[in-house]
Every structure is written in C-alpha cells, then in structure tokens.
Amino acid sequence: MVAAGLLRMYDLCVLPFARLTLSFIFATAACSCSSGETRTAEVMHSTTHAVVELRRSKFTNTALIDQANVLVSVLRVPATLDSRNIVRLVGLSSSSPEPGSCERIDYARTSTEATAAVQRVEMLDVGEVTLVAEGRSSTLARQAFPTVTDFIAGVVYTTRDLSSEPLPPASSYSILARGAGKIAPFRIDATAPEEISNVTLEGVPLPELSGVVRGAGTRLAWKPGRIGDKLVVEIKSPDRPGDVNCAFDDSAGHGNLPPDAFVSIGTVRLEIHRLRKTSLTTKGLDRSEVAFDYSLVHLLEIVQ
Fold first, then answer.
1. With 50 as the cut, is the pLDDT of residue 280 above it?
2. Among 4, 17, 30, 158, which residue is least crowded by beta carbons within 10 Å?
C-alpha cells in the first residue's frame, strides 16, 4: 500500500520552485480583474526593495535528487504602499504562522487578495548578478518575469539549474549586482543555516517512517537550530483545498502536530522547512531581505 501511495504521489511532488511561478501567475491574474480602474504606467514616488530567496530541498524517500534554487529580484513599488506586502502578494516571499500555531492555507483565496491601489510594480534590471558561496562564483541567469498583465513587469535573476552543489548549507553568501540605469552596484551578505537533521516523528527517524494514524497527534523532534529561525511543517494532500502549516521555534528542537493535521486517508507530502529571514541595510536600496528555506520532503501514508 505504501509503495502504491508513493507512486501516486510522484504526480503531486511539484517542487517549491514551481509553486513560486504559479503564485506569480495567480497574483497577477487577480490584479487584472479590477473593474475599469486606470493604471498609471509611471510611478512618481517609489521605493526599491531587493529580495533574495535561497531554497534547498532534500528528498528522503523518493527517486528525486536534492535540488536548490536562488531567486534575486529588485522591485520598485509605489512609496505609499508597504513593499513587504507586495513582495508576498506576487509570491517572492513566503508567509507562515507564528511559532506554536498552525493554519490552513488556501492559495486560491490568498491570490485574490490583491491590493486595488497598486498601479504598477517594476522588477528592475540591475545588471549582471553574481552569487558567491565558499569562494565559488556563479553568474545568475537574467529572465523575464512570467506575467500575464501589465500589473508587474521586468526581470528576475535565478540560478541556471537546480543543482544543490553551488548552494552549500551553513555557509556565507554574497549577492553582487553590477548595477544598471539608476540602480548603483550593490552587495548583499548573509549566512545560511544548517540543513535540518535528526528528525523523528513519535521517536521514529524520518527516513524509516512510512505512515501515521489518521487523526493522531504527533510529536516532532529535530536537532535544534538557531534562535530566531523557524521550523515550519507543511502537510499537503490532493483531496483538501488547502495545506496545513504548523510553525515552531527552531531552537526548541521539538513540537507537537495537532490531530487535525493528519485527517486525509492515503499519501500526503510532508515538508519540513527551516526558515531564516534577515532584513538588511544595503547602500543604494530602500529595503533588502534574504530568506533561506531548507526543506526535507517525505511521502507519508495516512492510515486508519
């Protein structure tokens, strides 16, 4: 039964990076539904907000290999709006509950919560962008932002493939932008967390775990991380409209998943994320932030 469930779940194992592109499209499509509003092409007063997101995914019980990705973008948004909300709206920054709490996420509903006052957001060309980690440099690929309306347009920078080798854990990272137009060269530095390790559910090591009982609370433990980081557990099922997200203080090293986290029957995708977000002061930019998202992905059978 478990083997069959795993095979069925291959179709559900959409990488977190693919979901990012989907959120782009949903968010921009939602904004196109405003009735008769005239959108101004030029933003007279604006702020610049740099966003760097580094993701690593390790697959525990599938044939998929470890994968990683970097996304770098610099947004110009109307100064009257909070650029952090816009970053979340277009899918450039993930949200999660506060430590010690859980929530159910309906991505379709969230994507329609567009801000009607937004006229235009630009994704700025900042010239060549280089990623440096442990002495290794990689030039990021410049790509057009996948938009379906004129709400948001421009470019983003990504790694050229999903190889995890250039993105080591527990390392210092630098993002170097050459600059272009009115954007001067800038540099953003941050330190990555360690990968998640020593994970157990009800005392069973994660790689050895094949199933849990439906509706049962589950004690989760892991090697503690740094104070200020989050550990977020996502439970994704094909027969439910939203995902269940539970967040914990990473430094605690343990937490309890509530009974209603596992209510489906069949195979679910369990994702355990270590999240580190840092807001920085960067010369030439109004705001910048770096987010690390290191995850373990495990296919799990829910049984009666």
1. yes
2. 4
